[in-house]
Amino acid sequence: MPLSPTFGTENLSPFQVESRREIISLLKGLQNSNQLISMLINGGSEVFITSILEVDEQNDTVIIDSAPDNMANERIAQSDRVSFEGLLDKIGIQFAAGKITRVSFENRPALQFSIPGSLIRLQRREYYRINTPLSTPIKVSIPADIDGRIVVLHLTLVDISCGGIAILDEKKVLDCTVGKTYEHCHLDLPSTGPITVTLQIRNSQELVLLNGKTNRRIGCQFINLSNSVLSGVQRYIMKLERERNSRLNGIR
């Protein structure tokens, strides 16, 4: 039975790839484009940046760069499960390995594992979206022209995906015309840190709350994100998913 590609796969099952030929093609795509990928151990508490050095179809192995120090590589080798996430042409790729061994590749230290039996491929228009916690709301800072002067609005983040975000504009002051673009917006994501993004308005919706008050929910698309920022967003999404699953399973 293939190892589940990553955390929260019950929600990502529509994007699961099990064709060996396609899996190998995607892995070789990551290798040939020299893409950096994140390697997560201990439930994501440790993250290392690596890259694929070789995909050996005949020997059913993938070889990747080792971690920076010997102790880290030993922890990786002792892990029962290692998860990976990367980007190929801005499409999210996620997979997991059950056992990793330390090897030598072209006279340098490396790590090796079996070609995964399945992986997750998140298409551009199918990014997994998750709600952000209401208990510790995250603010999105958006510089906007209000009555002829630039004002930085601090709006609450509602949900996030690798493709964009949804925000709440309680005072309904942001111009939410579809297609309008806001540059130099800031998000401070826990465990990832502050990032600067360009947002484009895609939709808006008037919400009526239980107390009778109204709010405005605005959907925004990320524009021209760098791979490093996209990786940070993806790590934060996975962190939220792990926390959600822990709550559902009663794990503290």
Can you offer a commentary on this structure?
Helices cover about 20% and strands about 45% of the residues. It has four helices and 17 strands. A hairpin with a 2-residue loop joins β12 (about 140-145) and β13 (about 150-160). The protein is an alpha+beta fold and about 250 residues long. Residues about 5-10 have low confidence and may be disordered. Belongs to the YcgR family.
Number of strands: 17
Give the low-confidence spans: 4-11
* Protein structure class: alpha+beta
The 3D shape can be described as elongated
N→C terminal distance: 29 Å
Order of helices and strands: HEHEEEEHEEEEEEEEEEEEH
Q: Report strand order across the widest sheet.
A: 1-10-7-6-2-3
What Rg, in angstroms, do the CA atoms define? 20 Å
Strand content of the residues, in percent?
35-45%
Number of helices: 4
The percent range for helix content is 10-25%
The biggest sheet amounts to: 6 strands, antiparallel
What secondary-structure arrangement, pairings included, does this model have?
Blueprint: H1 9-12, E1 16-17, H2 20-32, E2 37-41, E3 46-50, E4 52-56, E5 61-65, H3 70-78, E6 82-88, E7 91-97, E8 101-105, E9 108-114, E10 119-122, E11 130-131, E12 139-146, E13 149-160, E14 164-168, E15 181-189, E16 193-208, E17 214-222, H4 227-248
Antiparallel strand pairs: 1-10, 2-3, 2-6, 4-5, 5-9, 6-7, 7-10, 8-9, 11-13, 12-13, 12-15, 13-14, 14-17, 15-16, 16-17
